[in-house]
Specification:
about 350 residues, mainly alpha, hpI Integrase, Chain A, 2 domains, three-stranded antiparallel β-sheet, about 55% helix, disordered C terminus
């Protein structure tokens, strides 16, 4: 079997049999491309790669500045590939077995402060706002005038709804763009989720195709209602639109919005809002988790809301919560205020 056939066969396996997300399959393809590049330098066929080769390539990646986490992800892709080759009878052993990436300290997730998060979700693009009362209501006025809205105003409604929903419900970007405007007749068995406006819930399909329902806050519901009323006009205003996508959030061509588009729009919006650091979608998820934990102290509830399979994944937010408490202590406690002073007892 040719090298290309081997790689294509494995990628088809993880896509169909393991039902991995399209983005994950793309990342696996990049990992295997890196493996092919290293093997070509030796040169050695992929089916004859040995443990020593893998160790050498790990050292090269590490010395080249790749993080331990990045190397671990690549090794995971390679390990799965050789496990599959073994099942096909093409290799006698897995050369990646028992090889671990260099350990690196886990950085804390970057989260916005409460004031920063409020500043972002309250931001309205002055040139594109639909009304002048600081919000999006009354909904009826938007419904009446939606046909006359400019494209920039429609995009403003969409982007505001995305930001509100990301922060309100702690969604991953893949979960956000996978949402449909409503449940399908088939119950979204093939979809990635939907919004239930009446129940104020988002039904999302997370990692491992595990479904969960998360609450949607009042402000997010208002922003979503405004966007849904204008959404039909947005599609009608695109003469080149070739589809009537069921997606909740759509792009200029009327099709489901991409993760890259969400990243770009959120980055631009955060800078327009005056935040010092560009914001990405996962930062809003981190902010959601940190702020809910600060308010409730309920780690298990945060785990359920985020859709984490293991509580240890959620526990990283306790470190963020401790940072918040430490800052409050330093600012308020009389003994803490003596730090760095020349006060002597």
């Amino acid at each position: 079997m040719s090298l290309q056939r081997l790689v294509e066969g494995y990628l088809e396996y993880v896509r169909v049999e393991k039902r991995l997300a399209a983005r994950t399959v793309e990342l696996y393809a990049l990992d295997l491309l890196k493996l092919q590049e290293y093997a070509a330098q030796v040169p050695v066929p992929l089916t004859e790669v040995r443990n020593a080769h893998i160790r050498r390539w790990v050292a090269q990646m590490h010395s080249g500045g790749r993080s331990g986490r990045g190397i671990a992800l690549i090794l995971s892709g390679w390990r799965g590939f050789y496990t599959w080759l073994g099942r096909q009878g093409l290799v006698a052993s897995n050369p990646v077995q028992d090889i671990r990436a260099p350990k690196a300290p886990k950085p804390l997730p970057k989260a916005l402060g409460v004031d920063e998060a409020v500043q972002l979700v309250n931001f309205k693009n002055d040139s594109d706002t639909v009304n002048t009362d600081g919000g999006y209501g009354p909904i009826s006025s938007i419904s009446t005038a939606s046909g006359g809205l400019q494209e920039s105003q429609l995009l403003e409604l969409r982007d505001a709804a995305m930001v509100e929903l990301l922060y309100s419900s702690g969604l991953r970007v893949g979960e956000l763009i996978g949402l449909d405007a409503q449940a399908s007749a088939a119950g979204n068995a093939q979809g990635q989720g939907w919004i239930d406006m009446d129940a104020a819930q988002a039904h999302v399909c997370g990692k491992g195709r595990k479904w969960r329902a998360v609450p949607v806050g009042r402000q997010a519901l208002q922003a979503l209602q405004a966007w849904l009323l204008a959404r039909a006009a947005f599609v009608a205003a695109q003469p080149e639109a070739t589809t009537t996508s069921a997606a909740l959030f759509i792009g200029r061509n009327g099709t489901r919005l991409t993760a890259q588009s969400v990243w770009q729009r959120l980055r631009s919006r955060s800078l327009q809002a005056g935040l010092a650091t560009p914001v990405h979608p996962h930062m809003l998820r981190h902010s959601f988790a940190s702020h809910v934990l600060q308010s409730s102290g309920d780690l298990r509830a945060v785990q359920e809301l985020l859709g984490h399979a293991n509580i240890s994944t959620t526990q990283v937010y306790t470190r963020l919560d401790f940072q918040h408490l430490a800052k409050a202590y330093d600012a308020a406690h009389p003994r803490a205020k003596l730090k760095g002073s020349n006060h002597k007892p």
